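Class I SAM-dependent methyltransferase
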Amino acid sequence: MTLLCDEHLAAAFDHAARSYDTLVAANPGYHAHLRRSARRLGLPRGGEGLRVLDLGCGTGASTGALAEVLPSADITAVDASAGMLERAAAKTWPPNVTFTHAPAERLAEAGVTGPFDAVFAAYLFRNVTDPDAVLRTVHGLLAPGGRLAVHEYTLGGRRTDRAVWTLVCRGVVQPVATLLGDGDLYRHLWRSVVEFDTADRFADRLRANGFTSVRRLPLPGWQTGITHTFTGCRPTTTETAR
């Protein structure tokens, strides 16, 4: 199959929204790993006085991680899938969390404007048509010194990383998703990972798009070598001038 993209991918997520939370709940460490990546933003005072953008929030798992780690931050959660966003917004949230329907490529049209003190993007970049363009948008939305954390399936480059990913997808995820009528989306999931950047390549992509202090950090459990947190910063004016 070819990779799903743009409105076709959003429609597939719309359809899968009803069962998405059930599937991810079966993934050991899924929510704990998101919280770990949120903590890796390194924001002080529980986010007090800070604006945080949750880019590609899905049904709200990443939003929940941010709200737990940064309870005092003003969190704007955005997703391209109306179905996923509806599920997210229907959950119980504190008043400092808001939701907006918009693809990552057209945030300004939906009224999502910076500056943000941090951007969190979970499982987003391998699903956009032009990740470099989205990274440039994120860079522009961040305040000088603002921080980015990307939580993403990015294979470490070993043969075993791809083998484990393929075994999990084809042996567990895809059969269950097919029974639920969402086989195309989860076949896309497998292929989107094996065709996307390796972890080292994605770290280089962040640097090429203007981010500094880039770090690639592993996650534990079966996802070691498969899922990583990437952190980086928009340089301050002084750093840019050097």
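thats it. The CA atoms of residues 32 and 179 lie 27 Å apart. The chain has a mean pLDDT of 94. bye
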